[in-house]
Amino acid sequence: QKETRLCSLKCVLLFSSFLLRQLMANEPLEKLGFKDLINEKSEEKPKKS
Known about the structure:
49 residues; mainly alpha; 69% helix; flat
């Protein structure tokens, strides 16, 4: 489980670098299959009061 999450995070970084360098079409990470990771990140952010 932990190894799978680490691999997924590495893939997000790789795709992000491709997007920044314009090596692939600009697509939201959710559309590329990383919706679960994006949701986790938004849940981890502290809420402002």
